[in-house]
Amino acid sequence: MTAASPAVRQYLLVTGNYWAFTLTDGALRMLVVLHFHQLGYSPLQVAMLFLFYEVFGVITNLVGGWLGARLGLNRTMNLGLALQVGALAMLAVPAAMLTVPWVMAAQALSGIAKDLNKMSAKGSLKALVPGDQQAKLYRWVALLTGSKNALKGVGFFLGALLLAALGFDGAVLAMAGALALVWLGSVLFLKADLGRAKAKPKFRELLSKSPAINRLSAARLFLFGARDVWFVVALPVFLATRLGWSHLQIGGFLALWIIGYGAVQALAPAITGLRTRATPDGRTALRWALPLALLPAGMAVALGAGLPPGPVLVGGLLAFGVLFALNSALHSFLIISYAREDGVSLDVGFYYMANAAGRLLGTVLSGWVYQAAGLEACLWISAAFVAVAAAVSLALPRHARPA
Fold first, then answer.
1. Per-residue confidence (pLDDT) for residue 273, from 0 to 100
2. What pLDDT, in 10s, does the model give residues 153-201?
3. Which residue has the higher pLDDT, 190 or 262?
4. What's the Cα-to-Cα distance from 34 to each of 94, 183, 297, rounded to whole Å?
5. Average pLDDT over residues 245-272
6. Which residues lie closer than 8 Å to 72 by C-beta, 6 or more apart?
7. Are 230 and 365 in contact (CB under 8 A)?
8. CA–CA separation, 352 and 203 (whole Å)
9. Is 278 strand, coil or helix?
10. Cα dist from 332 to 80, 131, 266, whole Å
């Protein structure tokens, strides 16, 4: 750390904060799904526990981008860490107090925290990498995003493990204590003016005026809706009720999937053609979205034909993870590339508002559609959503800047 350049030191601090937060976020998601399903909640009721998590994520990304531009991304990142500690502490109460409104409120706080943290981490990269170094920016974005998602997978497994070892209360208290130490280190060492705009943006500047960012945001909304419509609630409940998997089996499998997904994201610059000396553009996003749309449709056809659901889901999920990771990494680079230099968090916040809206849509549909029509219907909706994302990508800017 002492031998590294100031930009690299700040990048490592931002990444470390993002890693620690992600571990608790993934673990908390798995804790809530498994614990409340065990208590007898229906799939739709479990999905509704995350409703405020996603709703406040939409609001937070929009307002948080404005706050980051005015106050600095270090402050919004530290605020996110502190709020997550509070959300975890809210759940460490007697079982009688764990009512649906209370859990939804805690999830709302966690949703605010998560999107403040994500927006701050992604937006800070624009401030740390010079604008003419697009290849370096792509690699740093891919590494940050990929490592975060790999650790989210570890968090899924950690959540299932802590639930088995410490119980629900012990698990959330242990995570709150560890994250509080990370927050203290971030307050002490993260650069004070990171990402602060030179001209204080007005509140009316929240909505993006850039056609490229608006189109990319629309594509992101449908891309993440396509994932969460079957991944968030429908898949874990199907594995538990139809295939008889245990909590540790479900948590372990989804953890390994997300770890592999994160590894593919980290390798995305090499896989998606950065070695050809051209940075990604709208054509690249379209090229990788089209095959992704075919996978959930193929899985739905296979399940409808009566093929064994275990191999269909495991094999299909692995292939979906690879293609989805590449699409997500491309989008994450394009938003940082398209964003303005001064006040980057405004554009990044608007984009991740669309990301959160896609998660919200997918989460609600995951519980509702699965309960009403089953997993096959969720997969068909997923395929349709990816097709819409591909269609929107047709209008993204096309260029071939040298790396």
1. 65
2. 788 778 878 887 888 888 888 989 989 998 888 888 776 666 555 555 5
3. 262
4. 18, 28, 27
5. 81
6. 192, 193, 194, 195, 196
7. no
8. 17
9. strand
10. 20, 16, 12
Residues in the chain: 403
Tens of pLDDT, residue by residue over 364-387, are: 888 889 888 889 999 999 999 999
* CATH 3.90.460.10 correct for 6-195+209-393: no
Tell me how far apart the alpha carbons of residues 151 and 153 are, in angstroms, rounded to a whole number: 5
Per residue in 199-217, pLDDT (tens digit) is: 555 555 555 567 888 888 8
Query: Nearest-CA neighbor of 379 among 287, 280, 305?
Result: 305
Q: Which residues contact 306 (CB under 8 A, 6 or more apart)?
A: none
Query: How many Å apart are CA 115 and CA 229, to the nearest integer?
Result: 20
CA contacts within 13 A on the Cβ side of 149: 25
Which token pair is 88? Answer: 């975890």
What tokens were used for 303?
């399940």
Cα–Cα distance for residue pair 68/123, rounded to 1 Å: 9
CA–CA dist 78, 74 (Å, integer): 6
Q: Which residues, in sequence order, are CB contacts of 227 under 8 Å at separation 6+?
A: 324, 362, 382
Burial class (CB in 10 A: 0-12, 13-18, 19+), 204: exposed
Task: Find the mean pLDDT for residues 114-120.
Answer: 79
Distance CA 287, CA 307 (A): 30
Query: CB within 8 A of 133, min separation 6: which ones?
Result: none
| Token pair listed for 204 | 């009316």
The per-residue pLDDT for range 47-87, each reduced to its tens digit, is 777 777 777 877 887 776 667 667 777 788 888 889 999 98
Strands (E), 10-90: none
- pLDDT for position 1: 45
Q: Residue 278 phi/psi, 5° resolution?
A: -125, 130
Phi, psi of 242 (to 5 degrees): -90, -35
Residue 292 predicted with pLDDT over 70: yes
Contacts of 333 (CB under 8 A, 6+ apart): 137, 138, 141, 142, 268, 279, 280
How many C-beta atoms surround the C-beta of residue 233 within 10 A?
Answer: 32
If one counts every other C-beta atom within 10 angstroms of the C-beta of residue 39, the result is 12
Largest Cα–Cα distance of the chain, in whole Å? 61
Nearest in space to 141 (alpha carbons), one of 163, 362, 133 = 133
